[in-house]
TrEMBL record:
InterPro entries: NUDIX_hydrolase-like_dom_sf (IPR015797), Ribosomal_mL46 (IPR040008), Ribosomal_mL46_N (IPR021757), Ribosomal_mL46_NUDIX (IPR033650). This is Large ribosomal subunit protein mL46. Pfam families: MRP-L46. Keywords: Mitochondrion, Ribonucleoprotein, Ribosomal protein, Transit peptide. CDD domains: NUDIX_MRP_L46. Belongs to the mitochondrion-specific ribosomal protein mL46 family. The keyword Ribosomal protein applies. Residues 8-106 form the Large ribosomal subunit protein mL46 N-terminal domain. GO terms for cellular component: mitochondrial inner membrane; mitochondrial large ribosomal subunit. One of its GO terms (molecular function) is structural constituent of ribosome. It is found in: Mitochondrion. It comes from Zapornia atra (Henderson crake).
């Protein structure tokens, strides 16, 4: 028998997030609390093994100066003091240079790059043709008989990024739903509108050079309003945490 007609067309969409790669800068209150906790920890802390060794060596040097001879060390033996180690570590520290928090992609406002806004979540948007419009959306495809909604969302991600992209999908239930009706000119009893079910995944691949779609963006939550329609954005913001 023929399948019963469905008045709503079903779609699965994937909210693919690149998690932060660095911590966010501390605000003033957090800096003050961190300094306070560091001071308390220092005052209550015990000597480390290195500090104990340094104190012992200082005591040995004091005794040698008082006795005016060296009877603890064999002649010609090379001794590495704790202070020598500290000097060596200090030289290594001077050679170390931390990577910048602001990348070239930030300076150029390149929203197609994953190497931007390293302290924030980035979400993938793709440009899709809906009717006679081209809209920025989360990657989505229409549900096919025999699929679960999660597998539909997985297929949406694979359609734009390829099967080799690694992502950790969170759960089997959708995080949100967006429902809209078609224009009256094309609306029928058997074709009322569409329901889009949103799933969420964390990007785990580090190289997407061979998988990036043609029209795509990696944007923060604050930047979504520049691309998504208000009603669509409202549904996405309900499940998207920054």
């Amino acid at each position: 028998t023929a399948a019963a007609p469905r008045p709503w067309r079903l779609f699965g969409a994937m909210c693919l997030l690149r998690l932060p790669r660095i911590s966010q800068p501390l605000v003033k209150e957090e800096e003050e609390m961190a300094a306070l906790m560091g001071q308390i920890e220092l005052e209550k802390s015990h000597y480390s093994d290195h500090e104990v060794r340094q104190l012992e060596e200082e005591e040995q040097l004091r005794r040698r100066k008082e006795s005016m001879h060296d009877d603890d060390e064999a002649v010609g033996k090379t001794v590495i003091m704790a202070q020598d180690l500290e000097d060596k570590w200090e030289q290594k520290l001077l050679q170390f240079k931390a990577a910048p928090r602001i990348t070239d992609a930030d300076k150029n406002n390149n929203r197609t790059s994953l190497d931007r806004r390293l302290d924030s979540n980035l979400m993938l948007l793709v440009k899709q043709r809906i009717g006679n419009q081209e809209l920025w959306l989360l990657p989505q495809v229409e549900w096919q008989p025999g699929e679960t909604l999660r597998s539909t969302a997985e297929r949406a991600m694979a359609t734009f990024l390829g099967d080799h992209v690694q992502a950790k999908i969170l759960g089997n239930a959708p995080y949100g739903i967006y429902k809209y009706k078609f224009p009256r000119a094309i609306r029928t009893e058997d074709n009322v509108g569409a329901k889009v079910f949103f799933f969420k995944a964390f990007l785990q691949s580090s190289d997407l050079s061979q998988a990036e779609p043609k029209d795509y963006l990696w944007v923060t939550k604050d930047e979504l309003g520049d691309y998504l329609k208000p009603e669509y954005l409202k549904k996405v913001n309900r499940f998207l945490l920054d």
